[in-house]
């Protein structure tokens, strides 16, 4: 399935030009997708970033508290670019 961290990891491993995961994150300004779906996707990207040891490129709009809580509770080795 394309909505797993394993899928992302395999794609990145096959392309040495990729140096980060993203842009990803939470954007609750527009109602273009459900909050739960955004959070699930964000967490998948975080998992891939940690496994690959490459930076996570984060976008957050009208979701600062949720973004902070998710990142705060992530692996301490996570590298973040906001």
Structural account:
- The chain is built from 3 helices and 3 strands; from the N terminus they run H-E-H-E-H-E.
- The chain is an alpha/beta fold and 82 residues long.
- The chain has a 3-stranded parallel beta sheet, covered by helices on one side.
- Helix 1 (5-13) packs across helix 2.
- The protein starts with a helix and ends with a strand.
- The mean pLDDT is 94.
Query: How many beta-strand segments?
Result: 3
Taken from the alpha-carbon principal axes, the silhouette is: globular
Q: Which strand order spans the largest sheet, edge to edge or round the barrel?
A: 1-2-3
The secondary-structure element order is: HEHEHE
Please compute the radius of gyration using only Cα atoms: 12 Å
Major sheet size, sense and barrel closure: 3 strands, parallel
In terms of DSSP E residues, the strand content is: 15-25%
Give the overall pLDDT as a whole number. 94
- Portion of residues in helices? 40-55%
Structural class: alpha/beta
Give structural attributes.
single chain; 82 residues; alpha/beta; three-stranded parallel sheet; 44% helix
